[in-house]
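Re-run with default settings, no changes from the original entry. Doing this only to confirm the output is reproducible before filing.
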Amino acid sequence: MSKTNTRLLLGAAILAVIFVLGVVMPLFAPEDPRIWNTQPRNLKPSVDHLLGTTNLGQDTFWLLAWSTRNSLIIGFLVAIAATVIGVLAGMTAGFVGGVVDRVLTLLMDVFIVVPSLPILILLASMLQGKASIYLISGILIIFNWPWPARQSRSMALSMREREFVNTAWFSGEQGWKIIIREIFPFITAWAFANLINTVLVAIGAESSLAVIGLSSLQESTLGTMIYWALQHQALLGRRWWWIGAPVVTIVVMFIGLFLFSTGLSERSAERRGR
C-alpha cells in the first residue's frame, strides 16, 4: 500500500470515529447534556460515566458528543458555503473579466486585507455570547470566502484561453455553462481539498472565540466546553476528564482532517501524473 493511500485511509478512519461521536452518539443521549445539575457533580470516570461528570452536574461523555456535533456543524457549514461562494465568484471573475472581475477582485482584496480576528472579537463581544451557531457560522463565512475565490480566479484565468474553452465559446455555448461544464471540473479536486482545510479554520476560529467567552455560550461546542472547564478551575481541581476531553477531540479531529486532505491531494497529483 502506498504512503498516500495509508495517509488517506488513516485520515478517513479518524474522521469516521469523529463522525460516530458527533453525529451518531448524540442520538442516544439519555437526556439533554447541556442542562446543568442532571448528574452528581465531579464524579471520576467509571462504567456509568465514561468520562466522569463536570462541576456543573453534566455527564462529560454525552456533553462531548453534543459539543462535537455542534463544532462539526459550524465547520462544515462554513466550509461548504465559503467554498461554493468563493469558487463561483472566482471562476466568474476570471472567466468574464472586465468590470465584473475588477469589482469581485476588489471585494476579495478588502476581506483578505482586513484583519478578521479583531472584527470577530468585536462582533462576538457585541452579541455577548448569545449568538446562535448559525449566526457565528455566517460571520465566519464572510471572512473565509475570499481565499478560495482568489485561487479559483487564478485557475479560471489560465484556463479561459485554452482551446477547449474557445471551442465551446465559438460554438455558441453560454458563459455560465462554460464555467460549470468546462472549467469547474478542473477545479473540483482542489475545491474539495480547500473545503477540508476550511473546516479546520472554522472550527479553530470558533474554538478560539469560545475559549475567551465570545462564542455562543448558550450552545455547547468544543470551545465552550473548554471555556466552562476553565471558568470552574478544572485544571486546578485535577478534573482532567472535563478539560482534556474536548482538547484531545480537537487535536484528533485536526489530525484526521489534515491526513485526509493531504492524502487526497497527493492521490489527485498521482492521477494527474499518470
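The CA atoms of residues 213 and 227 lie 6 Å apart. The chain has one domain: 3-24+52-273.
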